[in-house]
Amino acid sequence: MARILSIDHIGLAVADGAAAAFWQALGLPCAGNEAVESEAVSVAFFPVGATRLELLEPLGVEGAVQKFLANRGEGVHHLCFAVDDLRGLLAQLTAAGVELVNAEPRPGAEGSLVAFIHPRAAHGVLVELRQHGSPHEPTAGSDERIF
Q1: How far apart are CA 141 and CA 28, in angstroms?
Q2: CATH classification of 4-131 is 3.10.180.10, yes or no?
Q3: pLDDT of 110-142, one tens digit each?
Q4: What is d(CA 6, CA 143) in angstroms, rounded to the nearest whole number?
Q5: DSSP of 42-69, one letter per residue?
Q6: How far, in Å, are 46, 59, 116, 126 from residue 141 at the CA level?
């Protein structure tokens, strides 16, 4: 049975890179940035103990994070769990009737595989599942963008 290992990160939607200054003022160092072109977003990583904050800044005027900002403004975007077997967990969730955004893993930041659970299934919370450094190639999943 697939397992959740830890809270991997909390995703925060931000309008621009200036948001990083607040987290740095709290003493959190920026541990790197990465553009995730497939999601039209730039991600800045801020470690906090065993987890981290990820600031999600839209790249351009299109994309899911830009849409989120337009509809809801800046703030908590999603909660991400590290998992040991993403495909296995997606199969478990499908069997349990949980509504998924992605039935199959897709590429995520830092070479990981990711998939999202629809907020309707998680009582209003967008949940990301992330498998680090998977040797398996992702296959195409749903391209519905809800976040």
Answers
A1: 35
A2: yes
A3: 889 999 999 999 999 999 999 997 444 433 333
A4: 26
A5: EEEEEEETTEEEEEEEESSS-SHHHHHH
A6: 29, 22, 10, 17
